[in-house]
Amino acid sequence: MLLSKLEPTSHGVKITLVAPATLWSQSMLRNRRDLPNDFEAKTVVAYLKQCGLPATVSTSIAGNNVEHTFEWPANLL
Question: Against a cut of 0.70, is the pTM above it?
Answer without folding.
Answer: yes
